[in-house]
């Protein structure tokens, strides 16, 4: 679970919080919760890089929407997406220069808290379903809120 899922879930949470100042701590907290939920991370550089590019594309659209809206919830969506995805920057950097686990900052990345399925002997289908559910719910919330914002602005 990397950029795309974290950006979508963080943005959806930001929209629900409606205040940028609340969406930042919520996004960071949510990142911990999402990392602890059983899931599998990409094992290849290509998978991680593709997911990062998709996430950046989604984030770019959120920024564009926020620039065209004066609504506080649009800004909260952007900050929720940033704060939820930001901790994974250290994982992206790790692709290019190996950073020992104990030197990573985020608690689910340095082993302080469990991450993904490494501590659970779980079937690979369950994590995929959990990630798909989180992503689907986030897309639904974002779509509904963005549609309502566009209708109010029209």
Structure description:
The structure is a single chain. The protein has 154 residues and is mainly α. It has helices at 3-17, 20-36, 45-67, 72-85, 89-94, 125-153. Helix 1 runs parallel beside helix 3 (45-67). The radius of gyration is 16 Å and the shape is globular. The mean pLDDT is 79.
Report the oligomer.
single chain
Query: Biggest β-sheet: count, sense, barrel?
Result: none
Question: What is the structural class?
Answer: mainly alpha
Shape: globular
The helix count comes to 6
The mean pLDDT is 79
Strand content: under 5%
Count of spatially separate domains: 1
Counting DSSP E segments of at least 2 residues, the number of strands comes to 0
Give the H and E element order: HHHHHH
Rg is 16 Å
Please give a handful of descriptors for the protein shown:
154 residues; mainly alpha; 6 helices; 68% helix
Summarize the structure.
Helix content is 68%, strand content 0%.
Summarize the topology.
Blueprint: H1 3-17, H2 20-36, H3 45-67, H4 72-85, H5 89-94, H6 125-153
């Amino acid at each position: 679970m990397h950029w795309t899922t974290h950006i979508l879930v963080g943005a959806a949470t930001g929209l629900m919080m409606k205040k940028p100042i609340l969406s930042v701590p919520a996004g960071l907290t949510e990142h911990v919760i999402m990392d602890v939920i059983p899931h599998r991370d990409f094992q290849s550089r290509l998978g991680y890089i593709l997911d990062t590019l998709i996430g950046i594309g989604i984030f770019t659209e959120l920024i564009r929407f926020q620039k065209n809206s004066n609504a506080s919830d649009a800004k909260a969506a952007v900050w929720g997406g940033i704060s939820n995805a930001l901790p994974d920057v250290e994982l992206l950097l790790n692709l290019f220069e190996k950073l020992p686990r104990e030197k990573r900052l985020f608690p689910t990345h340095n082993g302080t808290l469990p991450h993904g399925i490494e501590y659970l002997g779980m079937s690979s289908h369950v994590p995929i379903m959990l990630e798909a559910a989180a992503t689907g719910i986030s897309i639904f919330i974002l779509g509904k809120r963005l549609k309502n914002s566009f209708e109010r602005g029209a």
